């Protein structure tokens, strides 16, 4: 016992020291970001105080300007240039030059960059959320959950584990190479390109940027033409944080534009990350093939939301409505196909109806509404066409949410939460990505049936399974073809930033987030070297150069890989004989000379 006491005391002292160090606040400088132009809500100049009427049926590309407006009020916000091919290539070249310097930076400097960003985000949550809300129509709560928390979680994970997963990783050398040391090294790729959507403008910029910069890369991000106003403000935050740690200028860039801008980016970078529709993802893949540029595609989703008869109906109804109709259904490809066991079908619809009647859509900044505006112009018309198709084929509207007090000019920017029943897979609403607050509900009888229904889709991003039996829910989820699965929960995976995120089939391939996403920003290099160099060096064995070389090789293979120890020992004796005979032959040859 006397032997252990010193060790216990040392361990206790170490724990106390670690705890005391945690009490010392880190020395993280504050950054100053000019927000005067985005804080002028309600105080716009006469030039920018009008209601913007977007052109219908034609692209803005010909105007060479990205026009920005609030989808909730149609109030004009300004414009940004649509960059040409040559301008994009110039921006990438500047980032590439800066990256060569940044690649030599220490992880200590990179972590400080992350801490500076984290400090700013925590201190300016309301500003960040308000800018996101104005540009995309989401509510402040939705912005806080989807923009602030996810980004802070990613930063925290990188601070805690990022360096660990980018350091060289030693691997076993196998039986034939026992005298070697093997490892995997992770080097920066160069300049990452990213084309990101409008639905979460803050996080969609920071997500690829954080991984790229922390792994030593530069990055050029094309923001959506529907969220350029917010994206360009968020870029100022990144610039200020980079300047605070002495990073080279142009390491990170945010560009604006349309299809031409995106195409130029794909052909100029060393790795492409795209988040968006399946159709555009296929075009990007074709363009990337010209230069063999690797791509990560996170595309459309039509996630299955499965509710077994032993689930807590009241709880699941709350999760379905609050998580799907209000936030996720409006702003991301969340659960879009609901499968409810026939035994609780009526009870579930009753609960959902009760909740939806209390849900209303309205101006997002007022704080009185559960849903904000639909960001994309004319998208409400597309949503209504999906509902009409379902109604024509036998579906019924179980309940619809209400509108708040809306101005006449903004009515078509909203869509009421809608619950459809008696749906089937012949309806577009069960096949096409809606990206809106529509909940189509279908019955099922057995686990085998619902698994078949869930897999009957060209999309395969994620799923959610609810059951009173955790084991049953896991068994169902394990048989669904998708990249992300939540057990008795919905959309919680993305808050676990140690996990990779992405889908299969028409939902894309490759992963971002987690270890896999971080290392996807790297050149993965295999390295082998002598374990005891220069004492032991690799030489070609003499028997391989002799007449009976193949017989020697046969014995060597069985010695190394034989299925049982006796066969391997017998072959080892043969190998030693070959080596001995060869040595004897060499000795006799030398004597004869």
Total strand count, please?
22
> Which parts are unreliable, with pLDDT below 50 for 5 consecutive residues or more?
586-591
Overall average residue pLDDT: 89
In DSSP terms (H or I, runs of 4 or more residues), the helix count works out at: 17
Radius of gyration: 30 Å
User: What is the terminal separation in angstroms?
Assistant: 71 Å
Task: Look at the helices and sheets and give the structural class.
Answer: alpha/beta
Helix content: 40-55%
Going across the biggest sheet, name each strand in turn: 13-15-16-11-10-18-19
The best one-word shape is: globular
Pfam families: Aldedh
Keywords: Oxidoreductase
Active site: 298
Family: Belongs to the aldehyde dehydrogenase family.
Task: Provide a descriptive summary of the structure in words.
Helix 14 (470-478) links the parallel strand 18 (462-466) and strand 19 (484-487). The radius of gyration is 30 Å and the shape is globular. The protein has helices spanning 4-23, 85-102, 107-123, 125-136, 140-166, 201-214, 228-244, 259-266, 278-291, 313-331, 345-356, 379-392, 447-455, 470-478, 514-519, 549-561, 565-592; strands at residues 65-69, 76-81, 169-171, 180-188, 191-195, 218-222, 252-255, 271-275, 295-298, 303-307, 335-341, 360-361, 396-400, 402-403, 418-421, 438-444, 459-460, 462-466, 484-487, 504-505, 508-509, 522-530. Mean pLDDT is 89; it is low at 586-591. The chain is of the alpha/beta class. The longest helix is centred in the last third of the chain and has 28 residues, at 565-592. The strands form 6 sheets. Strands 13-15-16-11-10-18-19 form a 7-stranded mixed sheet, with helices on both faces. Strands 7-6-5-8-9-21 form a 6-stranded mixed sheet, sandwiched between helices. It has a 3-stranded antiparallel sheet with strand order 3-4-22, with no helix packed on it. The active site is at residue 298. InterPro entries: Ald_DH/histidinol_DH, Ald_DH_C, Ald_DH_CS_CYS, Ald_DH_CS_GLU, Ald_DH_N, Aldehyde_DH_dom. Pfam families: Aldedh.
């Amino acid at each position: 016992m006397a032997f252990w006491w010193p060790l216990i005391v040392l361990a206790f002292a170490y724990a106390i020291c670690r705890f005391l160090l945690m009490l010392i606040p880190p020395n993280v400088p504050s950054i100053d970001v000019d927000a005067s132009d985005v804080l002028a809500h309600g105080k716009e100049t006469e030039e920018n105080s009008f209601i913007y009427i977007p052109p219908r049926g034609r692209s803005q590309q010909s105007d060479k300007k990205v026009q920005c407006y609030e989808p909730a009020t149609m109030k004009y916000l300004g414009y940004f240039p649509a960059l040409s091919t040559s301008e994009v290539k110039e921006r990438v070249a500047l980032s590439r030059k800066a990256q060569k310097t940044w690649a030599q930076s220490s992880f200590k400097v990179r972590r400080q960059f992350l801490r500076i960003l984290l400090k700013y985000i925590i201190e300016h949550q309301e500003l960040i959320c308000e800018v996101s809300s104005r540009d995309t129509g989401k509510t402040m709560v939705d912005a806080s959950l989807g923009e602030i928390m996810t980004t802070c979680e990613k930063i925290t994970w990188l601070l805690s584990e990022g360096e660990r997963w980018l350091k060289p990783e030693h691997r076993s050398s196998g039986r034939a190479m026992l005298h070697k040391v093997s490892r995997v090294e992770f080097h920066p790729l160069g300049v990452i390109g990213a084309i990101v959507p409008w639905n979460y403008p803050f996080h969609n910029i920071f997500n690829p940027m954080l991984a790229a910069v922390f792994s030593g890369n530069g990055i050029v991000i094309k923001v959506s033409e529907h969220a350029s106003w917010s994206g360009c403000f968020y870029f100022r935050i990144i610039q200020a944080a980079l300047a605070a740690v002495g990073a080279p200028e142009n390491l990170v860039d945010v560009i604006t534009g349309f299809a031409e801008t995106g195409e130029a980016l794909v052909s100029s970078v060393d790795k492409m990350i795209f988040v968006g529709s399946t159709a555009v993802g296929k075009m990007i893949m074709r363009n990337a093939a010209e230069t063999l540029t690797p791509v990560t595609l996170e595309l459309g989703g039509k996630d299955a939301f499965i509710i077994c008869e032993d689930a807590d109906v009241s709880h699941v109804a709350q999760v379905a409505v609050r998580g799907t109709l209000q936030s996720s259904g409006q702003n991301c490809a969340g659960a879009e196909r609901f499968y409810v066991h026939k035994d609780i079908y009526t009870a579930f619809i009753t609960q959902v109806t009760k909740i939806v009647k209390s849900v209303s859509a309205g101006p997002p900044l007022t704080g009185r509404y559960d849903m904000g505006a639909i960001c994309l112009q004319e998208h409400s018309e597309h949503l209504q066409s999906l509902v009409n198709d379902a109604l024509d084929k036998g579906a019924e509207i179980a309940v619809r949410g209400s509108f708040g007090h809306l101005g006449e000019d903004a009515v078509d920017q909203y869509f009421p939460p809608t619950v459809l029943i008696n749906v089937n897979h012949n309806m577009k609403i069960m096949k096409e990505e809606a990206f809106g607050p529509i909940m189509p509900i279908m019955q099922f009888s057995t686990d085998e049936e619902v698994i078949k229904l869930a897999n009957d889709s060209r999309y395969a991003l994620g799923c959610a399974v609810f059951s009173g039996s955790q084991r049953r829910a896991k068994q169902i989820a394990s048989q669904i073809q998708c990249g992300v699965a939540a057990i008795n929960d919905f959309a919680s995976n993305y808050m676990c930033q140690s996990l990779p995120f992405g889908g299969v089939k028409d939902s894309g391939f490759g992963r971002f987030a987690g270890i896999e996403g971080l290392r996807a920003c790297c050149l993965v290099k295999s390295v082998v070297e002598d374990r005891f160099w220069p004492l032991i060096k690799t030489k070609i064995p003499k028997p391989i150069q002799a007449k009976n070389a193949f017989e020697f090789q046969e014995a060597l293979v069985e010695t190394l890989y034989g299925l049982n120890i006796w066969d391997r020992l017998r072959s080892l004796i043969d190998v030693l004989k070959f080596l001995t005979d060869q040595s004897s032959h060499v000795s006799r040859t030398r004597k004869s000379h």
